[in-house]
Amino acid sequence: MLHLLFLHYVGSEQDASPFVEGHVAYLEQHHRDGTFLVSGQTVPAAIGGAIIAHGVDRGTIEQITEQDPFVAHGVAKYTITTITPGRVHASLADVLSF
Question: pLDDT for 28-56, tens place per residue?
Answer without folding.
Answer: 999 999 999 999 999 987 789 999 999 99
